[in-house]
């Protein structure tokens, strides 16, 4: 850069072009892959986990959001949410489930609760809203 040039990107520009990381945790391999494909053309970089315990082990300070299945074999969605304080993760959680919210898990436990079926637009829009 010459002495007369100034940087053209501001911190706001850098933030808007920055890729956020979402952890997709679902025990259904095909559905998890579908969610990953849906997010491929979005500003989200994806990581995946096939169980609640794997999700907890992958949550670090580089993960900006998590999409979490409610029912998984080892640790359920509510159990994962209960253990988030033991991780460095501080982002929003979007629960994605075939089951309606109830006393064990509802909108107050997560940034958003989506009931299946959902489409790619719903998922990307919800992640953008909660981030």
Automatic annotation (TrEMBL):
- Any Pfam family matching the protein: Response_reg
* GO biological process, alphabetically ordered: phosphorelay signal transduction system
Domain of life of the source: Archaea
SUPFAM superfamilies with a match to the protein in the record: CheY-like (SSF52172)
Q: Which UniProt keywords apply?
A: Phosphoprotein
Gene3D superfamilies in alphabetical order: 3.40.50.2300
**Family annotation (InterPro entries):** Bact_response_regulator (IPR050595), CheY-like_superfamily (IPR011006), Sig_transdc_resp-reg_receiver (IPR001789)
| Region of interest (Disordered), ranges | 1-25
Any idea where the Response regulatory domain is?
A: 21-131
Record field: compositional bias (Polar residues): 1-10
Q: Which residues carry this modification: 4-aspartylphosphate?
A: 69
* The name this protein goes by in its record: Response regulator receiver domain-containing protein
Origin organism is: Haloplanus vescus
């Amino acid at each position: 850069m010459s002495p007369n040039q100034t940087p053209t990107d501001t911190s706001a520009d850098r933030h808007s072009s920055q890729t956020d990381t979402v952890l997709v945790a679902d025990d259904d391999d095909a559905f998890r892959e579908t969610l990953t494909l849906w997010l491929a053309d979005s500003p989200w970089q994806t990581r995946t986990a096939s169980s609640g315990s794997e999700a907890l082990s992958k949550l670090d300070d580089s993960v900006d959001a998590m999409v979490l299945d409610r029912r998984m074999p080892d640790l359920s969605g509510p159990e994962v949410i209960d253990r988030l304080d033991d991780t460095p993760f501080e982002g929003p959680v979007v629960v994605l489930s075939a089951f309606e919210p109830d006393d064990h898990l509802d909108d107050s436990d997560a940034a958003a609760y989506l009931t299946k079926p959902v489409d790619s637009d719903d998922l990307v829009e919800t992640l953008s809203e909660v981030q």
